[in-house]
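Quick question: what would this complex look like in 3D?
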Amino acid sequence: MDQSAALTTLRLDVAQRFASGFAVDAALDVALAPGSMLVLFGPSAAGKTTVLRHVAGLERADRGTVVFDGEVWCDVTRKLWLPTQRRRVGVVFQQPTLFPHLTVRDNIRYGVSSTPVAEVAGVLGTLDLENRYPRELSGGEAQRVALARALSPRPRLLLLDEPFAALDAPTRLRLRRDVRGLLQALGTPAILVTHDRTEALAMGDTIAVVIGGRVRQVGPIADVFSRPGGADVAASLGIEAVLPARVRRTSDGLIEIDVDHVPLHVAERDALAPGSDVYACIRAEDVTLETRAAAHASARNHLAARVVSITSEGPIDRVALDCGFPLDALITRRSRDELQLGPGAYVTAAIKATSVHLIPRV
Amino acid sequence: MDWTALWLSVRLAATTTLVLLAVGVPIAYWIVFSPWRWKFLVEAIVALPLVLPPTVLGFYVLMAIGPLSPLGRAYTRLAGHGLPFTFQGLLVASVLYSLPFAVQPFSAEFASVDRRLIEASWSLGVSRFATFRRVIMPLSIRGLVTGVVLSFAHTLGEFGVVLMVGGNLPGVTRTVSISIYDAVQSLDYRAASRTSLLLLVVSFIVLTFTYALQRSIWIRARH
């Protein structure tokens, strides 16, 4: 596929009420670059999967529209409906739903008459599974086959419904990386449903936060994490600051990263190659403030910061800082009084190397 | 042994089973997959022969295909003779009588196919009909075989409906169960016992086969 192809737009505005009382009323308007990934993120039972099923054509809306790339897939008012079969979307479910009576080869070729392209075949890597039956596969192998099957007919959009959730951690990490690489090679955009924050950060380009059956916020992943539009969105995203960063070098068990040209030292937990992109996550309660740098403190990072604003959260104050990048610190009111902090004040923000958590981008 | 009656019963049971396979599969599919909210009415109608006395069912079938009904008259015009007391009439009655024995195992098996397999097939561009043929049918082999076996066995042993609709014409409508009844009536216990034993053995084998299939390890359709 031509990598310079124009963005594909997905406009969705659907409402559906289920017999159980559960209801979604979700609107989404996004542009998907070739090979990019939109994450539908939110707590369990928020309606993420339902939204995905509306895109796939596996749910009928009570009201609303789904338009993909200018093509009307669903318009309840005008009684327009494009069946799943003609939408050309690939779907991978949480459990690998392979056809149990068919071999791996027949599963992969189920939706096509010809042999799939090399990239798709490559998802199985060197695994020799072709003649095996699904019951003979491990969870990770089965999910790879499900992925190859979904991609064989060269879908215009791949829909992933928590496909990594049931896998063990090493398998999950490997598969995430492979999926990401494969989608970029094929130029196929994808929508990933997940409630796993690390997964959202590792895989997403754009994020749509779904809470209570509604899409609450959509945007580039770093923007949404740094500026959540509402308390419940912030709560679902977690309380940490999420900063895009790049690994500079590694030495003596420390990784030096670059956050907006500010160097930070992070304790090395996983090996990361210099130059790789990461998100640095820092919890506000792990940031201490000092009026001047202490001579022999254990914290590795001492950043010159300016106080932007102070908001009271009960007995705790949240201090918004500018250290070259935005960062919050939580301090008690007494500390604030002792430090005589106010907007515009200059302080040193100290962060222990072990308090910075890195999420590698795949 | 009344071989003529036995052969007739086998022919009737085989034909009924074939018709039920052709009619029962679409009905079962519809019952499982139709979104129609009143479909339980159809389910109830299909299940009626399970609880109705065969004479009641036979009576209504006789009325429906008799010369006084529009259906009966239309058939007479086309075929040149009436449906009652013919093999064809018996076939109609048997199909209705054994309908639940085919439809219920079919629909139970269709319903047990993982919905996501069906959705996966649709999303791969495969039509509903082809999905039925390529996914639902192969995964429902057990239910299909059970339905076929039960329909066959049930038709083989039917009595009341046959008597009401078919009467007792040797080679045409005298089935094996009626032949046994006749033998007892004429105090020919020897013939009755031979035929009864045969029917008992056949029924036992058929049911053993069915239950073995339910527990089978030789059809591994599901993971």
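Answer marked as accepted. The two ends of chain B are 48 Å apart (CA to CA).
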